[in-house]
């Protein structure tokens, strides 16, 4: 019997259980409060709606090769997901979750691409850590992210707590803005029209299920 969990939410329960074991209660409280505040403070997140054209972009991938959206769209549709960074356990969970359905996504005529403001070196780290077989691009300064989703400055309380836990937030990025994108997913048709656009809000613990992406690709 296959016991592998198929949804992000199911895997999230295991992640939360692990975090409760691994992190001091006070630290987890800081991060959870941050997520709840972001949910309250960000109501209108997406910058693009279904039916609009996706802005073209050129970004470096994990091996510093330039990847251009319009070039990708000449071959396949693109499933575009914006994430925060390799230090974020929820991002790692989401990307690993999507990787499990990568063959299904490809079979439906689409290519998966993930974007964060991290350096190419950190993109390579996230690819290796999660054994990802799709492009992970570096959007320094969130130039592209601002055209698709909302961007915010990460809270000092969260960064200070990360530092206390031994994580160097700033080394993941090549600028000092400390800005992050709110996670969001877009499906872009070959003519650059957006056919799906969704964010579950500022609470970065919640992510779009891969099953929802697949259902849209099937239509």
From TrEMBL:
Gene3D superfamilies (UniProt xref): Glutaredoxin
Ranges for the Thioredoxin domain? 48-219
The UniProt keywords, alphabetically, are:
Antioxidant, Disulfide bond, Oxidoreductase, Peroxidase, Redox-active center
Q: Which reaction does it catalyse?
A: a hydroperoxide + [thioredoxin]-dithiol = an alcohol + [thioredoxin]-disulfide + H2O
This entry's Enzyme Commission designation comes to 1.11.1.24
Task: Give the matching InterPro entries.
Answer: AhpC/TSA, Peroxiredoxin_BCP/PrxQ, Thioredoxin-like_sf, Thioredoxin_domain
Q: Main EC class of this protein? A: oxidoreductase
The UniProt entry, under Pfam families, shows: AhpC-TSA (PF00578)
Q: Which residues form a coiled coil?
A: none
Source taxon at top rank: Bacteria
Protein family: Belongs to the peroxiredoxin family. BCP/PrxQ subfamily.
What function is annotated for this protein? Thiol-specific peroxidase that catalyzes the reduction of hydrogen peroxide and organic hydroperoxides to water and alcohols, respectively. Plays a role in cell protection against oxidative stress by detoxifying peroxides and as sensor of hydrogen peroxide-mediated signaling events.
Q: What is this protein called?
A: thioredoxin-dependent peroxiredoxin
């Amino acid at each position: 019997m296959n016991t592998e969990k198929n949804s992000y939410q199911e895997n999230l329960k295991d992640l939360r259980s692990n975090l409760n074991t691994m992190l001091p209660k006070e630290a987890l409280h800081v991060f959870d409060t941050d997520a709840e505040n972001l949910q309250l403070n960000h109501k209108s997140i997406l910058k693009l709606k279904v039916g609009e054209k996706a802005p073209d972009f050129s970004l470096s991938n994990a091996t510093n090769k330039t990847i251009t959206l319009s070039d990708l769209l000449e071959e396949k549709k693109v499933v575009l997901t914006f994430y925060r960074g390799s230090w974020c356990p929820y991002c790692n969970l989401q990307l690993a979750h999507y990787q499990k359905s990568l063959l299904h996504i490809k079979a439906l005529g689409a290519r998966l691409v993930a974007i964060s403001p991290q350096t190419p070196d950190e993109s390579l780290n996230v690819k290796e850590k999660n054994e990802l077989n799709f492009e992970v691009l570096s959007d320094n300064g969130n130039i592209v992210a601002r055209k698709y989703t909302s961007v915010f400055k990460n809270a000092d309380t969260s960064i200070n707590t990360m530092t206390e836990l031994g994580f160097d937030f700033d080394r993941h990025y090549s600028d000092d803005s400390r800005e992050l994108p709110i996670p969001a997913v877009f499906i872009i048709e070959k003519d650059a029209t957006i056919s799906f656009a969704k964010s579950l809000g500022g609470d970065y613990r919640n992510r779009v299920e891969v099953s929802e992406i697949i259902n849209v690709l099937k239509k």
